[in-house]
Amino acid sequence: MNPWHLEPLYMAGRLLLALILGGLIGFERERNSSAAGFRTHILVCLGAALVMLLSAYGFPEFAGEPNVSMDPARLAAQVISGIGFLGAGTILRNGMSITGLTTAASLWVVAAIGLASGAGFYFAAILTTIMVLLSLWMLNAVEKKFFSSKRIYLVKIHAVRTHGVLNDISSLLEKQGVVITSVSLEEDDRKENSEDLQITMSLKLPKALKTFVMLDELRQLKHVAGVSVE
User: Is residue 89 predicted with pLDDT exceeding 60?
Assistant: First the structure.
């Protein structure tokens, strides 16, 4: 067999496999409302598979030429570094909290699955997809159960500028066992009234405290007009 030629049927099968495997991981990310979801993962995986096919089989006419060195991995290797730009776009920072790292990692591994599919490493591509899905499903449940207290919440409180309002808020949070990691104050730009304040806090909640309970008690404080959490 000619190592630089691949039948169209096999080529279509590799692309279809990349579409399916990328779609499975993308579906899981879509269910978690990630920045990169179903279609993005499919496109990344399919594009990586196409680049792998192009790198390995796209230039057969030059294989027998003198002074020509064929390297099937050269073009495909650029996918690994290039996918970093797309992954970086899914990472967001809200105060002390950083989100999107898991989605960025899933895009990177989906690109690798696409390359494996394009190269014909079917078993490795399928097995990696299964392991990724198990990691995302199982570790997500483990993280919620054991590490929820380490999550940092960004809470925005809209209040009236009065003496002692910040002290009332911090006292309530301390009674609930909430750890305040950072606080910032600024005028509420939603209204023209200069007496309105927006207080932004980064908080660590104890395991036993539910988020909605904390928000409900904050809303009941005097001079607090509204509360939102990220």
Answer: yes
